[in-house]
Write a structure and sequence with these properties.
globular, alpha/beta, ten-stranded mixed beta sheet, 16% strand, 13 strands, Spore Coat Polysaccharide Biosynthesis Protein SpsA, Chain A
Length: 471
């Protein structure tokens, strides 16, 4: 019986691994084709094209803030410095317990204004709305509301206030490139069926900022954010870029993405109880368009639009990945009716099945594989020669894939100000499969367990690592 199980499990793992490798190879090809379309445009051409277009739409930046008193002033100043002719910044104070709101009022000369608040989509109660009396900060609006427990609830409050046809969902601690809005609007000016644009994100840990902008972009000296930087580059430059080519993206990152306000509202806004709001909203937006027989596209662009601070300790990484794991299982259960459903075309037949098999099930299969391996070790059932050959092959493929992403990023213009910085990423690629990846698997499984056991979780503050400021 045990031998039959091992044979069956080994067969499943073989085909699972083969399918995963084939999918990565296909995504590499798709990513190359998709990015080639955009790399022919220079940043100067994109910026001038948007500036000169009479059709460039208004854009709102919606950024929730919860207990951000240490960085809120610098972060808001950074957002206000973006280069776009028609935009506003909406900060949603999500029931902060510190003096975040007081700092906003004091530093930006905010005054409470009478406002007829209309709840287009549900969120926790609205308290007050503030705008500045200083023309210098005319683009800034502050919404004060009761804490909703998730970022999704805070974004909904912002959506109830904005009037622009497009909005950017970001985190208040993110640093955006000055041309971030232009980069995301450019493809929309070429194709009005686009309902969401994902900008490439990178880690700001280790970089140096001045006046709310990064002036020296470096990789972190700490291992956790360095591993996550590599992980982000793989996700954006291969995964999302590849899926974008066949219009099958499964999320636009909650750290930075531009969305059609109309479609988001029509789809019901963000689910306030969601811990995977980035996946949930895209799935519901695409589902809405398919049900209404409306043409749509969701795309990834290769331009780095956003830098965010990642976890710098295992403890904070665990909290982040627990939440992501909880959100993923919640997402798959909520949208199970779309799985393998021809009515939802690419979404139901490609996007969600891939997410189920190669993202949701991956930690479960790897965790079970570890248990089986330990049992075989104790029963002397392992063919060690074959084991090490297989491990070397998997490790080698992982290293080749990461190296490809690193060199592709370098040849495409580079994320860092120094070429030597890429040596750190190459070093991270050597150790990621044996140090970082096992932690991600464990923390994801913990997130699944917490969801299944209905353990309480809320959207709260992450420990900041502190992007260095130039003095």
């Amino acid at each position: 019986m045990w031998e039959a199980f091992i044979y069956f499990y080994g067969t499943i793992i073989f085909f699972y691994t083969l399918g995963l490798i084939i999918s990565y190879m296909m995504l590499l090809l798709f990513a190359y084709v998709h990015s080639s379309k955009y790399l022919k445009w220079t940043d100067d051409h994109i910026n001038h094209a948007v500036e000169d277009s009479p059709y460039a739409p208004g854009v709102s930046i919606v950024a929730p803030a919860y207990n951000e008193s240490k960085t809120i002033v610098d972060n808001v100043n950074s957002l206000l410095q973006l280069d776009y002719p028609n935009f506003e910044v909406v900060i949603v104070n999500d029931g902060s317990k510190d003096n975040t709101l007081d700092l906003l009022i004091e530093n930006f000369q905010m005054e409470e204004i009478p406002y007829e608040y209309v709840e287009h989509i549900h969120c926790k109660p609205f308290r007050r709305l503030f705008r500045s009396s200083n023309p210098r900060y005319r683009r800034l609006t502050v919404v004060d509301k009761v804490n909703g427990g998730t970022k999704a609830d805070a974004v909904n409050a912002g959506l109830n206030v904005i009037k622009t046809p497009y909005f950017i969902n970001t985190d208040v601690d993110c640093i955006l490139s000055r041309d971030a809005i232009k980069q995301c609007i450019f493809p929309i000016l070429q194709d009005n069926t686009i309902i969401a644009v994902s900008g490439t994100m990178s880690m700001s840990n280790g970089s140096i900022s001045e006046n709310g902008q990064l002036v020296d972009i470096r990789p972190s000296n700490k291992p956790i954010p360095l591993f996550q930087d590599l992980e982000y580059k793989r996700s954006f430059l291969i995964g999302k870029m590849g899926w974008s080519q066949i219009n099958a993206m499964n999320n636009v990152s909650g750290g930075y993405g531009l969305f059609s306000t109309e479609v988001v509202l029509a789809a019901g806004g963000y689910a306030s109880d969601s811990f995977a709001e980035d996946m949930d909203i895209i799935t519901r937006m695409m589902g809405y368009c398919l049900e209404q027989k409306r043409p749509y596209r969701v795309i990834q662009i290769p331009h780095t639009c956003c830098w965010t601070e990642g976890p710098s300790t295992v403890k904070v990484l665990k909290r982040q990945r627990n939440r992501w794991g909880r959100g993923l299982i919640q997402h798959m259960w909520k949208h199970r009716y779309m799985l393998f459903n021809p009515k939802y075309k690419t979404l139901g037949l490609v996007t969600l099945p891939y997410t189920l098999i190669f993202e949701f099930l991956a930690p479960i299969i790897e965790g079970l594989g570890l248990i089986v391996m330990l049992c075989l070790i104790f029963t002397n059932g392992i063919n060690w020669a074959g084991f090490w050959i297989l491990m070397a092959a998997i490790y080698g493929f992982s290293l080749v894939l990461s190296s490809f992403v690193i060199f592709y990023d370098y040849l495409g213009g580079g994320s860092y100000n120094r070429s030597a910085s890429y040596l750190k990423l190459l070093l991270a690629a050597l150790f990621e499969p044996i140090i970082y990846h096992p932690m991600i698997v464990l923390f994801s499984l913990q997130g699944y367990w917490k969801y299944l056991t209905n353990q309480t979780a809320v959207w709260g503050e992450m420990t900041r690592t502190g992007t260095k400021k130039k003095k």
